[in-house]
């Protein structure tokens, strides 16, 4: 592992979950009766996008609870739910965790403050003409 990459086992876990999600697509025979992923994909984007919104809210609530005796494991579990449902969305829209990791790697070393200032300057330049 180096400071830019996930440990191989972590990246492997994301890749394995992504492969399972892919296998639940209906063209691979995923069954909405027996598979939660197949059920979500069968219901369509509104179902899993709604879950992403709910899970994001649950992450925020669990994080806020940490300051009042909340369990760290509860917070981690909510983040896992958010990642999982986001991975269902990635699969539906033809993207993968690898794409997200590549995007994070592309950003590595560029401060968010620097990046935002650059974006503002570019916007100003394009507005001016
Ligand atoms: N990682 C997950 C995972 N995380 C969360 N969930 C499910 O996500 C659902 C929604 O979470 P909620 O906390 O909102 O639970 P809920 O209140 O029952 O949900 P709703 O009533 O709101 O629908 C729960 O039923 C969880 O079990 C997951 N379901 C599946 N996986 C992975 O996906 C694989 C394939 O799953 P199946 O397609 O079901 O075989 C599994 O082997 C796991 O690796």
Automatic annotation (TrEMBL):
Entry's localization field: Cytoplasm
Keywords: Amino-acid biosynthesis, ATP-binding, Cytoplasm, Histidine biosynthesis, Hydrolase, Nucleotide-binding
Organism, scientific name: Simplicispira hankyongi
Cellular-component GO terms for this entry: cytoplasm
Protein name: Phosphoribosyl-ATP pyrophosphatase
InterPro entries in the record: HisE, PRib-ATP_PPHydrolase-like
GO term, biological process aspect, one: L-histidine biosynthetic process
GO MF terms held by the record: ATP binding; phosphoribosyl-ATP diphosphatase activity
Keyword hit for Amino-acid biosynthesis: yes
Coiled-coil segments on the chain, per record: none
Gene3D superfamilies on file: MazG-like (1.10.287.1080)
Top enzyme class: hydrolase
Family: Belongs to the PRA-PH family.
Organism domain of life: Bacteria
Documented EC number(s): 3.6.1.31
Pathway: Amino-acid biosynthesis; L-histidine biosynthesis; L-histidine from 5-phospho-alpha-D-ribose 1-diphosphate: step 2/9
UniProt KW Cytoplasm keyword: yes
Location (main, coarse): cytoplasm
Catalytic activity: 1-(5-phospho-beta-D-ribosyl)-ATP + H2O = 1-(5-phospho-beta-D-ribosyl)-5'-AMP + diphosphate + H(+)
CDD domains linked: NTP-PPase_HisIE_like
């Amino acid at each position: 592992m180096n400071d830019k990459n996930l440990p191989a086992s972590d990246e492997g876990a994301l890749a394995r979950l992504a492969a399972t999600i892919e296998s639940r697509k209906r063209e691979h025979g995923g069954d909405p009766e027996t598979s939660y992923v197949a059920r979500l994909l069968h219901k369509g984007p509104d179902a899993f996008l709604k879950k992403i919104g709910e899970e994001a809210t649950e992450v925020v609530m669990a994080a806020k609870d940490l300051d009042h005796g909340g369990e760290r494991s509860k917070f981690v579990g909510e983040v896992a739910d958010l990642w999982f449902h986001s991975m269902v969305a990635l699969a539906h829209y033809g993207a993968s965790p690898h794409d997200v990791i590549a995007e994070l790697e592309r950003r590595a070393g560029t401060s968010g403050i620097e990046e935002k200032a650059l974006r503002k300057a570019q916007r100003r330049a394009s507005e001016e003409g």
